[in-house]
Amino acid sequence: MQTLIKTSIMQLLELYRQDPRADKLNLTAGIYMDESGTCPILDSVREAEAFRVQNQSSKATFNLTGAPDYQQAVRTLLFPNMGGSGETHHVQVIQTLGASGALHLVGKLVNHYTPNAKIWLSAPTWENHPAVLNSHAGGFGHYRYLPAHLDEVSLDTILADLESAKPGDYVLLHACCHNPTGMDLNLSQWTKMADFCAERHLIPLFDFAYQGFAHSPERDAELFDAFKERVDRFLICNSFSKNMGLYDERIGALTLVFKEEEQALDWNNTAKRLIRSSYSMPPTHGSFIVSHILNDPDRCARWQQELAGMCNDLHTRRAAFFTELANAGIQDQVLTYRQQQGMFVMLNLSEQQIDTLRERSGIYLLGNGRISIASLRTEMMPRFVEALKSVI
Ligand SMILES: Cc1ncc(COP(=O)(O)O)c(C=O)c1O
After folding, report:
1. Measured in angstroms, how far is the CA atom of residue 354 from the centroid of ligand 1?
2. Is 252 close to ligand 1, i.e. is its CB under 6 Å away?
3. Domains of the chain (ranges plus CATH)?
4. Can you give the residue ranges of the Aminotransferase class I/classII large domain (predicted)?
5. Which ranges in the chain belong to alpha helices (H)?
6. Cβ–ligand 1 contact at 304 (below 6 Å)
7. Disulfide-capable partner of 101 in 25, 92, 96, 270 (CB 3.0 to 4.6 Å)?
8. Which of ligand 1's atoms lies nearest the C-alpha of 178?
């Protein structure tokens, strides 16, 4: 039997492609698919693209960290209430190649400023985190991300593990829709986390790849207020791959939120040098789409409706899947949490059960038991649950 514990999602996708079975089922990738099995282009995105084709007057624009319109759009999306006097932090937005590009840039920046600092990752976490962050020399720490009970993550365990972190270390936190568990800290837990980071001088590093998929873009960003009130600096890596469906445009941002203006500007300048010496400057198509939509209230409202449509679909499918598990009498055995958000559900399965599902039934899921509910069409649920039942 081929063991796939350490197999990456890309290798699994290759095996899936080679699998000749007509009824094979790919539940690996975190890509939103509608009930017809396609990843749609949003109407708001199509309109923005059409507008650009008609109106773009030049391709000679050069902004190392992105166009000001794009930076404004990201700033407003992350901090809807920001502006006016009394702001405590300086916010610098740097356009990146998706959240992956933002994380990679963070790795380089951390290495530049504090090569001995560790980056603490949740265990489990997104399988690609160590790889995209690996340009920093300080290595990784790990904090356990475990259930306190069916409806809550254990913050006590997280904080107990982070006791070993040193001042100046970074803590990577999934701002919402934790990958792979789908279970997030609640606002009161975020506040405690912010207090903890402030006391220990730890620097929060947010992966915000799923903004809008838990509740709404504004509500999912609420936790940042607690951090602004408590910590001197934090970093946010966000993405428009998922919430605008712009996967292959590679568009996201690294946002620096620093109390000290001089430091923010210094980091921004270093980021410019790093960008110039690697890919020179970012592409503009995706960033145009984002700013065209977000900087106009009507277009933004239309996009929010489309995003809400995707989210509601995921909520409905998750509920249907949970019901199907309950009807089969295996819900308690299979689910770690009752209240997951976003694209993923983590199933309590052994590596052997996961291998058997793939080999016997052509059902592909990650070696840690993560499935993407966004790839599980309602009509496929009975077959999937039956296959699950057969391996338990
Ligand atoms: C937690 C997490 N972070 C980052 C990413 C990468 O996002 P992007 O496509 O914007 O690079 C993903 C996508 O799979 C993810 O799940």
Report:
1. 23
2. yes
3. 9-41+299-391 (3.90.1150.10), 61-295 (3.40.640.10)
4. 23-388
5. 9-18, 43-55, 68-78, 98-113, 129-132, 155-162, 187-200, 217-220, 223-230, 261-276, 285-294, 297-327, 331-334, 351-361, 381-391
6. no
7. 96
8. 1
